[in-house]
Specification:
mainly alpha, about 575 residues
Length: about 575
Amino acid sequence: GGAAGESKRPAAIRVTAAQKRSAHDRSRGSRRERRVYTREQVFALKSKCVEPPPASVMDRVPGVYVAGGPDRREGAGAGGRPAAGAGAGELRNQAKDKWVPPSMQSGMNFTIDQEELRREKYVEAVRSMTGTLNKVTPENFAQLSGEVVTKYGEAEGDEELIKEHCQLVFEKALSEPHYASMWGDLCTYLSGDPSAKNDTPDIHSIFRSEVLNMCQREFERMKEELKMADEDFEPELYAKKKAGTLTEDELNELEERRVKRGKRRLGTIKFIGELFMKRLLTKKIMHYCLQKLFSVDIDKLPMFEQCQNIDYFCKLVRTVGAQLDSLPKDMKTMSTTYFDRMAQMVAENRYPPRIHFMLEGVIELRSNNWVDRHARGPKPTTISQVHTNAALKAKGIDPVEQPKASPAPAPAPVKKTPQLSKEAAAEKVTMIVKEYLFSHELEEAVLCVQELEAPQYNSLVVETATNLVLESLDWKTDAPKLCKLLVELKNKCNISTKEFGEAFKPALQNLGDLAIDVPVAPQVLKDIIEHLMKKAKVLPPDFLVDYFQQISDSKHQTLFFPLLP
């Protein structure tokens, strides 16, 4: 029985193994047919091959040499092809249209896309001009202006590139209104001689016409924008603001867009004025711009549109007024067309303080022969002046106190205005603060307070402004604006700590009654004082020590207690 079992067992094992191999081969057959070898795998087997592999195998691996043939490093022809007569080293399945690097295309015929080459030169020229314009400052203007003129001259014959260069200069001028005079000088260089008349337009006349067209389009666009309130530009964000759902990022974005629009308009007005001063614009065009801003029927416009038109009208007159007022005929036109109506508006006293003082300032400027007694601020400082001032400060010398090379002429005598009463001062301050909370013009608000020339009412200014914000429904956005205004007034109007204390004292004493009408008022007042003490640091840390006892309610004392030193 054992022998019979032993004789049957091998046969059974052999059959089972064959079946297994057959099943395994059937399951792997399709995958074997689809197997693909990489170039590295084939080359790894090259040294072990005694005979060349079948052509059916090599056809699947394009660009591989048969074993024993020449390689790509030595003895190879151009483009990696084997030399003639390679025999067994002949490349199999070589594509006829194989890509060849440009560096190896010597002696080959190929076509260059001229349009693509021109586009590359165009992009490079625009990039180069943009980089140069971004580097221009008053200090290096003499050097870089020549470079700009040279690059502009290189664009001759390419109308598209000329227009692009004109657009770059125009946009740069609008983005830097404080350097409007410098950009006006650059336009003078690029315009050549305006009196020269050529039968065919040259590169300079093209620049003049392009800049004039751009100014006209921008001015007309600005006029359309002046008909719109800020809410019309961003209706969705302003709707969220009224609903109280506006986030801090959205509020910052809203403010940034508003400031950007105002800066571009100011740049447009100043650039147009400077082009007239450089005699690139005619007197007729300038009167057209002035009359568009200060039209006969301006009184029929909405108040916000009247204010915006008068604002930019005054800025333009400040720039070009001296030039327009230089001849007797022009003086008569200026008086009858503009200044008589401006004096009437001032007498009516129906505009916000900022506009009222702006009209008064232009009238006074003309009466003083267009010599500004009090400039809005210092002129832009050059880099060399910054280094000089830093060196003087390092030596302990205040650069502001340095003697001038030539003494300034004595200012013209100023007529003293009658002293304001406390009620009149409070009324004017109320109008100034309301205008500031609406327009966000911080510098204008500070200037209006300074022009009151009533330092005895400093505490009244702070008190009135604070009460307006405490009673405001939009206190979330008005409180930060008030803090900025109070910090600027503290620095520029020299409001003392005692005057701040006298201003906050009535509110601290009446917190209980104030909280009945406006429940959030105590918290808002606490936030304002905390900002002035800890963030802005314009008030000393012990500011509340003398005024803490004025708070009669223990609940509100607990609220203000963390502010004590």
